[in-house]
Each structure stands twice: as structure tokens, then as C-alpha cells.
Design brief:
Largest sheet: 7 strands, mixed
Shape: globular
Radius of gyration: 24 Å
Strand content: 5-15%
Distance between the termini: 89 Å
Low-confidence stretches: 94-127, 333-364
Structural class: alpha/beta
Number of helices: 15
Strand order of the largest sheet: 7-6-3-8-9-12-10
């Protein structure tokens, strides 16, 4: 801890700011020291739990709250190797949180207060905990009352590099998930060495407007920091109905589409965002052999319907891993799904994950297109993922990849050439 304190103080003195995750990646020795510090913190937490005589709930978050003498009550994040929920995984892996923890002389990071305590939302660390889960759901906007198609944006002014592949998040809401993806601090997506552009489309236009203002404000604050480099423009939000605006928006270089926790519309299914028409249009726009669609919902009926709709087009096939490259920090590793074709039960590594759900009646299905993913394919979770962790609600995820375009048939010989060849024979 003392070495980390000295290193953090030296960096802040030299650069005039606190270190970030990207700074750790540039120094493997420093990053390794941080990882070892977190490992020792986990060991210390286990010792405190053993001394208190309490056990962690199966599948629950393994963050021990010493003041309350119990473990966190949330479910562990899906695919988490450390067994932490999103809130405490962010706290433990955040370099700013570690810097704040290093300043506490008498308590290791595992002693910090969770679930709203100092460790979860201290100064310099944005708390990941949801505090408005008890409020009644808002009235959902009817998509059939917003039939006007949106025109194309000035994409050359929105993004610095239009040659980059683009990730489209349909129903992005406030855009918090896209902001983290575009920030590339937790995970960075690349395709053939190129980073991604990010586009969020939200039916409720005021949310998209506020997200763009928040993005602009964040860019201005980042530019004012001493020693901050110029970060390119790679994030934008549009308020539009994707059902009527997908083609008219003329989205450049579309590669990945995410539809996460859309409105279920249980009683009015025709209002659901995923329809046969949308699936066919996405199949026509996505590149063959590489374009991908990530679907996720905590309603089993909706998840099954979305997956079946895309597969019914004949243009998609289920995959376990994304076609793009992921560059996560070392502490963001996830469990890998084990291939056990024909197994009647869940693989051992998968069965331990609480929010993993496979659907083939009551048994593990050998067909890849009938499996749900055991982890988030893009690593980062949304706010709804946090709600599922708090309420112990299972989530259903699948990744569908655009099939390669069929090769054009070879041209048939002309009738005259066929006749001449027949005469010569």
C-alpha cells in the first residue's frame, strides 16, 4: 500500500491529475501491483468473514462489509470471475477508488462500506448503485405515434473517422452504457485494428438531446485538464423511431447492433421494437460474415421472441463470441463457456454463475442456437443489469452473427457458344 501511495503521489505531481486506467496499462509493473493489492484485499475480506462467522450466499456478491458484518446482498455480476456485483467490481477496479482507498491508513479496501457507503460512492468515484428501483415504471411511448422518419445526420461532423466500424445501440435511454463504451476505459472494441464509433438511437428524443449535451460537457471538461490529449469524436445520440428511420438515417459502416432490455409490451406485442421487418433490414445492412446483433432481456418470452425473429430470416446464426476484438483490463476477465456437447447438465464453470440461464426445457441443450450466453459478450453491463443483480432476476442473452453473403453463381455459357461446342463435338 505504501508503494502505491508513493507512486500515485508521484504521478499526480508530475501530471497534475490523478492516474486513470489507461495510465496503468502503460506501466505493467504498476498495473501488476494494483492487481496484487486487490487480490490481497479479497483474501483479507475472506478472513474477516470467517472471523465473523458468516458465509456468502451462493451466487451472491463476495464483497464483505465489515461495519455490517455481512456480505453484499446483491447477486454477482454475470460472468464475474471475482464474484462481485457491478457496484463493487467498479469500486475495486477503479483506479480513482484505489487512490482514495490508499489514503486510508487504517483500513484495507475490503473494509470499506458497500451499498451506499464510502466505498461505493465516495468522492471521485461515480456510484454504480441504482437508487430509484422502487419508483413506479414510467409510461412507455407508443412507437406508432412517432412514424416520421429521421433524415441522415452530418456524419462527417459527428465523427472524426467515418472509416471506423460503428456500434448501434437501439433504445439507449439516457446513454450511460454507450458513454462508458465510448470512453474505452473499461473495455475497448476494435476491428482490424480500428476503434469503434458509437451511436445511440432513442425513441424519446429529449433523452437523446440531454445525452448529447452531457457528452459535449464531458469533452469540454476533459480538454481543460492539464496534460490531457485531444480525444476524437466517437459518440453521438439521435432521437428517432428505429422502425421507420433505420435506412433513412444512412448510418455509416454499421457493424454491431445492440438491443438490450427493450420494452416488453406484454399486452401489445405489435409495439415491440424487434419485428420481422427490422430483422430483415438489419440483415441487409450488416456486413456478411462479420456483422453481429446482441440481444438481451430479463423477460424469457421476449428474449425467445427476439431470437426467433432474427433466426427466422435465415440471415443470422448464433455465436458464442463477438466477431470484433475486445481489449479489457486484466481484472475484467470472465468465465468461458465450456463446450460439452450432449451434456445433460450445466458445465461446472457455468453452473456457478447465478444469472446464467440456458433454455431447452430443463436440460442443457447441445444445439448452439438454443443456448443463452453465460456472460456479457461486450463485458460492460447496463443499468438494468444492476437492477437484475439487486433483485436476483435472471437475464437471457444471445449473440447472432450475419451469415456470409452467398457467392454469385458462375455465368452460364451463351446458347450460341453451347451450339458451337456441340457441333464441334
Amino acid at each position: 500500500r505504501e508503494k502505491l501511495e508513493v507512486r500515485a503521489a508521484e504521478f499526480e505531481k508530475a501530471h497534475g491529475r490523478r492516474y486513470e486506467a489507461s495510465d496503468l496499462k502503460k506501466d505493467p509493473e504498476w498495473d501488476a501491483a494494483q492487481l496484487e493489492y486487490r487480490r490481497l484485499s479479497s483474501v483479507h475480506a475472506e478472513k474477516l468473514a470467517a472471523a465473523a462467522g458468516v458465509a456468502c450466499r451462493a451466487g451472491g456478491c463476495r464483497f464483505f462489509i465489515s461495519r455490517r458484518r455481512r456480505f453484499c446482498s446483491n447477486m454477482a455480476a454475470v460472468g464475474s470471475v471475482e464474484g462481485l456485483c457491478t457496484e463493487h467490481a467498479t469500486v475495486r477496479s477503479s483506479s480513482k477508488a484505489a487512490d482514495k482507498q490508499d489514503g486510508k491508513k487504517n483500513s484495507p479496501p475490503s473494509d470499506q462500506e458497500g451499498e451506499g457507503g464510502e466505498g461505493a460512492g465516495g468522492e471521485g468515484v461515480r456510484s454504480k448503485r441504482k437508487h430509484n428501483m422502487a419508483r413506479p415504471p414510467k409510461h412507455m411511448l407508443n412507437p406508432f405515434k412517432c412514424q416520421e422518419a429521421a433524415g441522415p445526420e452530418a456524419w462527417g461532423e459527428v465523427y472524426d473517422d467515418l472509416e471506423r466500424p460503428l456500434l448501434l445501440d437501439i433504445g439507449c435511454a439516457k446513454g450511460r452504457w454507450l458513454e462508458e463504451m465510448a470512453g474505452e476505459e473499461q473495455v475497448r472494441l476494435t476491428l482490424h485494428g480500428r476503434s469503434f464509433n458509437y451511436l445511440g438511437v432513442e425513441l424519446y428524443a429529449p433523452l437523446a438531446l440531454l445525452a448529447n449535451r452531457r457528452r459535449d460537457a464531458a469533452q469540454r471538461r476533459a480538454a481543460e485538464l492539464p496534460g490531457a490529449g485531444q480525444k476524437g469524436r466517437n459518440l453521438h445520440f439521435v432521437g428517432a423511431n428505429i422502425m421507420t428511420s433505420l435506412r433513412s438515417m444512412q448510418i455509416p459502416n454499421l457493424h454491431t447492433v445492440c438491443i438490450q432490455f427493450p420494452d416488453p409490451w406484454i399486452k401489445k406485442r405489435k409495439r415491440r421494437v424487434v419485428s420481422a421487418g427490422l430483422a430483415r433490414e438489419l440483415g441487409a445492412l450488416l456486413p456478411g460474415g462479420g456483422g453481429q446483433v446482441y440481444l438481451c432481456s430479463d423477460y424469457l418470452a421476449l428474449a425467445l421472441d427476439m431470437r426467433a425473429t432474427f433466426l427466422a430470416t435465415g440471415l443470422f446464426e448464433a455465436r458464442r463470441k463477438p466477431t470484433c476484438d475486445l481489449h479489457p483490463p486484466p481484472h475484467a476477465a470472465q468465465h468461458e463457456q465450456q463446450e460439452e456437447e450432449g451434456s445433460k447438465g450445466l458445465p461446472a464453470a457455468v453452473a456457478k454463475l447465478p444469472s446464467v440461464v440456458t433454455w431447452a426445457g430443463s436440460a442443457w441443450c447441445a444445439r448452439p442456437d438454443m443456448r443463452w450466453l453465460p456472460a456479457r459478450p461486450l463485458l460492460l453491463g447496463t443499468e438494468r443489469d444492476q437492477v437484475c443483480e439487486v433483485t436476483w432476476r435472471p437475464s437471457y442473452r444471445c449473440l447472432l452473427v450475419r451469415k456470409p453473403n452467398p457467392s454469385p453463381p458462375s455465368p452460364e455459357p451463351r446458347a450460341e457458344q453451347s451450339a458451337q461446342s456441340a457441333q464441334s463435338e
